[in-house]
């Protein structure tokens, strides 16, 4: 349209220059001839109307709009004078709309800090609907509409409050994990042939493992002393455990229930042949066997105690856990590296280390 309009402007400008040397008599004759041609064209069209392109409307509106209405009525045109004026009004309205248009149409986006606060309130209070969240924001002095809170929840794919309020077994057990401990014995046979019994306890909340000891003779005195040491360690760590889950093994004497009861911990025995009641502890037993006992030649009790101590430290401070988003019980997930200089330094160190390994391999070959 712009190219067509520019073409019309240039051609009519040259036509106006051509009319400058023409006399008034010749102009009057040309005007009469043009008016007669318009009359013939209207007679041939009949009830049909002449269709003007958008660039033709713009050009005619810009050319004829400055003329008064009485002058327009005397002109012989294919359209009425009111139509020409309407074309001019539409042209001005489009120009004003284009100049007043916002750079970003629609409502302004919600501040990111408010979005984060809304999502946090909904996550920590699953029974709250968007109107309750709107009320809490108003209490904090944050002025947003209730529909804004609803739009935030809808854009994040969060269901309404009645559906979010339902509790799953996974969520229920996760909410009770801080008060639960798991305990079990592990049997292994070192190279000496003397069977060893390992007593370990795991915290359900953070998956921290505590190896209480290993012995060839798990007597009542030895187990009771190990449980006493566990109670003191829990008090020093500020653990709020209230229940300890164990199986019905005969190696657990009755004295440990009394020691735990004095510390405010109740013993819960698993059902007969139901190891899934202590599934978290059983899962650690499997990890310990696959990662340590099945891969290491254990010589004697002393060697076993040393290996268990090293594995306990590795499990609590280094090994990644999928249930904890790849964190460890005593180690959080490190923050991502965003400094380009540090990334380049790490790449250089990795490349130098790889070069050293290849050099040693070639030298050995």
For the structure shown, list the relevant keywords.
single chain, 365 residues, alpha/beta, Nucleotidyltransferase, domain 5, 3 domains, five-stranded mixed sheet, 15 helices, 56% helix, 9% strand, rod-shaped, RNaseH-like_sf, Integrase core domain-containing protein, nucleic acid binding
Short description:
With 365 residues, this protein is an alpha/beta fold.
Give a written overview of the molecule.
The chain has helices at residues 2-19, 24-45, 54-64, 69-74, 81-100, 112-124, 130-139, 146-155, 161-164, 169-175, 220-237, 255-262, 279-293, 301-317, 340-364; strands spanning 180-188, 196-203, 209-215, 243-246, 266-269. It has a 5-stranded mixed β-sheet, with helices on both faces. It is of the alpha/beta class. Helix 12 (255-262) links the parallel strand 4 and strand 5 (266-269). The chain folds into 3 domains: 2-98, no CATH class; 112-166; 177-324, Nucleotidyltransferase, domain 5 (2-Layer Sandwich), CATH 3.30.420.10. It is rod-shaped. Helices cover 56% and strands 9% of the residues.
């Amino acid at each position: 349209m712009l190219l067509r309009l520019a073409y019309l402007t240039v051609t009519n400008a040259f036509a106006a220059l051509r009319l400058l040397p023409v006399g008034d008599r010749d102009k009057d004759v040309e005007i009469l001839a043009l008016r007669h041609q318009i009359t013939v064209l209207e007679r041939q069209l009949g009830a049909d109307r002449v269709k003007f392109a958008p660039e033709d409307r713009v050009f005619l509106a810009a050319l004829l709009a400055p003329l008064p209405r009485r002058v327009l009525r005397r002109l012989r045109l294919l359209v009425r004078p009111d139509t020409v004026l309407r074309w001019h009004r539409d042209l001005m309205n489009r120009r004003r709309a284009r100049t007043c248009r916002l750079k970003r149409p629609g409502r302004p986006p919600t501040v990111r800090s408010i979005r984060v606060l809304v999502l946090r309130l909904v996550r920590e209070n699953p029974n709250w609907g968007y109107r309750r969240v709107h009320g809490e924001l108003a209490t904090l002095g944050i002025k947003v509409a209730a529909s804004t809170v609803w739009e935030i929840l809808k854009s994040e794919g969060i269901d309404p409050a009645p559906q979010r309020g339902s509790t799953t077994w996974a969520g229920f057990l996760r909410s009770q994990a801080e008060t639960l401990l798991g305990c079990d014995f592990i049997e292994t046979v070192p190279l000496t042939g003397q069977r060893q019994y390992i007593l370990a306890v795991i915290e359900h909340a953070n998956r921290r493992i505590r190896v209480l000891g290993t012995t060839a003779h798990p007597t009542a005195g030895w187990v009771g002393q190990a449980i006493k040491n566990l109670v003191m360690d829990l008090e020093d760590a500020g653990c709020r455990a209230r229940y300890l889950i164990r199986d019905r093994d005969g190696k657990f004497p009755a004295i440990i229930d009394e020691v735990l009861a004095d510390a405010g911990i109740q013993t819960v025995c698993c059902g007969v042949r139901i190891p899934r009641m202590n599934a978290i502890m059983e899962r650690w037993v499997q990890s310990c066997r696959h990662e340590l006992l099945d891969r290491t030649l254990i010589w004697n009790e002393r060697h076993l105690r040393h290996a268990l101590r090293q594995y306990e430290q590795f499990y609590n401070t280094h090994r990644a856990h999928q249930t904890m988003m790849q964190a460890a019980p005593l180690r959080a997930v490190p923050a991502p590296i965003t400094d380009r200089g540090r990334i380049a330094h790490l790449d250089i160190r990795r490349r130098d280390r790889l070069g050293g390994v290849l050099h040693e391999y070639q030298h050995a070959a």
